[in-house]
Amino acid sequence: MNDDKLRQARFGALCETLRPDLVRFAFWLARDRALAEDVVQEALLRAWRSFDALEDEGKAKQWMLTIVRREHARVWERKRLEVQDLDALVRAEADVLAAPEDAAVGEMREALFRLEDDYREPLVLQVMMGYTTGEIAAHMGLTQGAVLTRLFRARQKLRKALGGPDTTEEEQ
Q: What is the model's pLDDT at position 85?
């Protein structure tokens, strides 16, 4: 097998294993499934172009998540938001306005989306993707103590937003 085919095979295997996590992370950043898919697709293209720069494939997940985060930022730098005519939707009695949703899930989702990125990102990485605080620290370029503080504050903010008890020592 020549070098180019070997490189393609290595990158393909890497993408196959990491893609679900990349899409999940992009979804929590973008809050939109289609946009998340687009962000991951662009991130994979960027990763392919600079794949030779990846020296340690053991760090590929962090590397790819960083590319996804940066690509998401690029999308918002150049994105013009679409505007929906709410009156037209109401007149048309659009199904999207009446979509049933579990109230608790919707309330939790809204509370998560209202968190600042500095708190939401480490919480999503830990709870949704199973990262350790050390992995989150390396990914975000923070100390482990800073990650623990952000996670604690994120949980406090969620608890407050959802009307739960306010604790200060319970989670540390």
A: 63
- pLDDT tens-place string over residues 83-134: 666 566 555 655 555 555 667 777 888 888 888 888 988 988 888 788 889 9
| Domains of the chain (ranges, CATH numbers) | 1-82 (1.10.1740), 94-162 (1.10.10.10)
Which amino acid, 142?
A: L
Tokens representing 107?
């309330």
Q: By C-alpha distance, which of 68, 75, 63, 64 is closest to 28?
A: 68
- pTM tops 0.90, yes or no: no
Q: How far apart are the C-alpha atoms of 70 and 76, rounded to whole Å?
A: 10
* Rounded Cα distance, 100 and 150, in Å: 33
- Reading the block at residue 162, the tokens are 């959802």
Give the integer Cα–Cα distance in Å for 38 and 40: 5
Distances (CA, A) of 42 to 52, 81, 98, 155: 17, 19, 33, 32
